[in-house]
Amino acid sequence: MKQSERNIQRTLPLDIALKIASSLHVLDLCSLGSCSQFWRDSCGSDSIWESLTKQRWPSLHSSSFDPNTKGWKEIYIRMHREKAGSAAEVVGFVEQCSLSESIDVGDYQKAIEDLSSMQLSFEDVQMFLFKPKLNVLLNLVGLHYCIFCLEMPADRVMDTLVGCNILERKVHVKWWKLGRWFYGFRMRDESCSCWVSLEDLLTGKGEEVLGVLRRGAVHEVFRVEISISNPTSTSWCQSTQGQG
């Protein structure tokens, strides 16, 4: 054992070391644990990893654990890999469906349903979908899932998007509405086109578009298409009359 490590053990009580370790994020915790045997033991404490696991996956039930699993750190690692694999499936699906840089609302909603069935947590979405290098459509899927499935407060999602540097990314949403009936005659179908940022969708400014994305092609709306926007575009909406 190195002299410096012996000095740490003599001067730093274990309970203080555990308190320090428990205040760290996972990556920082792992980095500290690689510094010495003393910190490896402290950072590998079962109580710390139990807290991290339950904090990240609040709905996790002990009945789902592999009986051969040894300790909470192993449970955390196994769960992380499982959720990473699940997220990768959704990423692959959305990328395959949006080869032309647009996605139909049916495929969009399927991606969200898949996330829900996989029970990804808010932290999972942050790690795997809120990445600037990913297609903005995937950022949008993650945002929608957080708001409507996880029921996360809009301001908390907003803060997360700021930290991930994707808040101002934009998408183009276009939807077609059936023409209204007027004195026995059906008016021409109407198309609506809108550029919105992820920030807009978390505020009243994008409320109508978010509602369209949530409902999909139902009732008077018979088609919805989401595509990648031009980063230089500003947010705007317009309605045009199509053919009846």
TrEMBL record:
UniProt xrefs under InterPro entries: F-box-like_dom_sf, F-box_dom, FBXO4
Annotated Gene Ontology cellular component terms: SCF ubiquitin ligase complex
Pfam family, one: F-box-like
Domain named F-box: residues: 11-53
Organism superkingdom: Eukaryota
Biological process annotations from GO: protein polyubiquitination; SCF-dependent proteasomal ubiquitin-dependent protein catabolic process
PANTHER family: F-BOX ONLY PROTEIN 4
Identification of the protein by name: F-box domain-containing protein
Native organism: Populus trichocarpa (Western balsam poplar)
Lineage per the UniProt record: Eukaryota, Viridiplantae, Streptophyta, Embryophyta, Tracheophyta
